[in-house]
Prior knowledge:
By secondary structure, the protein is an alpha+beta fold. It folds into two domains: 119 residues, no CATH class; 73 residues, no CATH class. It is 37% helix and 16% strand. A six-stranded mixed sheet has the order 1-2-6-5-4-3, with helices on both faces. β1, α2 and β2 form a beta-alpha-beta unit. The longest helix is centred in the C-terminal third of the chain and has 24 residues. The chain is globular, with a radius of gyration of 25 Å. The termini are far apart.
Amino acid sequence: MDYDGFLPVFMQITDGKVHESQRAGSYSFSKGSVVVVDRGYVDYSWLGDLDSRGCYFVTRSKTNMKYSIIKSYQSEALLEKGIIKDEIVELSGPSAAKYNSKPLRLIHFWDSTTGNHYHFLTNNTGWKASLVANMHKQRWQIEIFFKHLKQRLKVSTFVGTSENAVMIQIWTSLIGILLLKYLQKKAKYDWNLSNLVGFIRMNIFVKINIWQWIDDPFIRPPVKGKNGQLQIFSD
């Protein structure tokens, strides 16, 4: 999903037996791209390939990640922004060879809202630690996107159970959500996506100019009569 507009750019559909990290290598990113992924995509060979291509990545480190600390930064200013520690680390064990023994940056972040601790891993040493944490926070938009697919377009259950039937429903839903997001972005009215879906369902068979309605959905018809009052009796 592209951060600019939070719309999907490409996708692959596999069965549940295929792990995310196995498909990561099939994606291609241009130099300078910033790739933000969850822990399911942490494959050090792939992360090393991204780094060698001039791409940056932000992800959460695995709980069993083995590493040694090269440098560690702590301060009151960092702590005020939720940053417990900002470390430069080096992987150890088999993971080091996969990542070509390059240094990585490990940021220990405390979320004051939830009280949870997070560990963010990136190959960029120039960004502010708070920026790295905020980047990963924006990854939640893809979870919201899937939530819309399941709840608004009812992809949680399938009409048919064959592979072809499932694929048709998923692709149709993706096309539908893209059209809805396009309407939401282009509309002058500030639509909530759930409200937009609900209103379209209610007006799906109404013959009306789509852009006129979507820009001003609550327009009222003009009142006929003198002084704005309806005439009961005609002359």
